[in-house]
Amino acid sequence: MRTSPTWQPLKISEKQLQKHAEDILQLDGWRVFRPEQNFSERKRKVVGEAGAPDGLYVRYGGFFHDGSDAADFMSECAAEVMWIEWKSAKGRPSTAQKIWHAAERKRGALALIAGEDFPATIDGFKEWYKNSGLMRKSF
Hints:
single chain; alpha+beta; Trna Endonuclease, Chain: A, domain 1; four-stranded mixed beta sheet; two-stranded antiparallel ribbon; 3 helices; 8 strands; 23% strand
């Protein structure tokens, strides 16, 4: 007897998740930067920071909900800055990445890890972004 196939969510790679989410962010006015740690042959030194996330996102002007219980508290800022470490649903941050994110959060940064701060799916990112207070346009 043939059974009906069960619906399963589409599995996407870290790269696909990052690309789709960055397209949304760019349409909403964010600039995309990709910091990474590299070795400079010419300078013979390491450039960048160990554990730095996949993406730095900057948008000028606007408001941000600080995540407090007071849902109506919004802060005006000259620039919004967000760091995101992209992971697939099965991906896990390295120890260096966890340390980097903890240090930046302690400094007051909005530093996120897919799979920890929002589900590592396109819908998970969209839902987080919609509820963050950062979204200016509807998608």
